[in-house]
Write a structure and sequence with these properties.
2 domains, single chain, two-stranded antiparallel ribbon, Rossmann fold, alpha/beta, globular, 8 strands, DNA polymerase, domain 1, six-stranded parallel β-sheet
Length: 221
């Protein structure tokens, strides 16, 4: 790990809590906020994988909107243009996980970047609203290659943009499928397993498993 020169972070589910939309969903649809958030996120990810395999890319804004519509239809929630607009806008103001800000502040001496499925129009306000726009040297979107994680072409964006070899990059994700994809590509991978989840069997395991982002600092002290 001493050779690592840059840390590249996943955004959704790693730095930013996608389920911080539950409160808004609950106000709109009492008793259904949690179910809406869970199904919305699951379908959002499923659509990224399916569209990648089908070769029918749409950016993450379109994918997220389609997943929201699907979730509301399944849960029989009346989704009009106003509610849809508010819920989509909430993705620009997702809450940071409690461990994220301190973890990033402690990682002095390393270049920090984001590599995300998010569209540029989603990522820019998200990072700015969290006050992190000066923290990262690059915020990289899959939109540059028109395919979603865990396609190897996505991970190649990080060494290309940062000018650092894949073996000198530490990749940080709370999503195991993303961690496995990054390890398969050749990164040094840190899986943030906040929930104590069972690892998937994919033939590519992360190098380090931590329960909080703040654990990263002890690796680079």
């Amino acid at each position: 790990m001493a050779r690592i020169k840059a840390l590249v972070f996943d955004a959704y589910g790693t730095l930013f809590d996608v389920h911080s939309v539950v409160a808004l969903g609950e106000r709109m649809f009492p008793g259904k906020g949690g179910a809406l958030s869970q199904l919305w996120r699951a379908k959002q990810l499923e659509y990224t994988w399916l569209r990648s395999l089908m070769g029918r890319y749409q950016d993450f804004t379109a994918v997220t909107a389609a997943a929201l519509g699907y979730a509301c239809t399944v849960l029989q929630l009346p989704l009009d243009a106003d509610k849809s607009g508010q819920l989509m806008a909430a993705y620009n103001q997702l809450e940071l996980y409690p461990d994220a800000r301190d973890a990033l502040a402690a990682l002095t001496g390393l270049e920090l970047a984001i590599l995300s499925n998010g569209a540029p129009a989603m990522l820019a306000p998200l990072v700015k609203n969290a006050g992190l726009d000066k923290t990262f040297s690059a915020v990289i979107s899959v939109d540059e290659v028109k395919i979603f994680k865990p396609a190897p072409r996505v991970y190649q964006l990080a060494p290309d943009r940062l000018g650092v070899a894949a073996g000198e990059i530490g990749f940080v994700s709370s999503n195991y499928w993303d961690a496995a994809g990054a390890k398969n590509f050749g990164f040094n991978v840190f899986w943030i397993n906040r929930a104590g989840a069972q690892p998937d069997v994919l033939g590519a395991a992360p190098d380090v498993v931590l329960d909080k982002l703040t654990g990263l600092a002890t690796r680079f002290a």
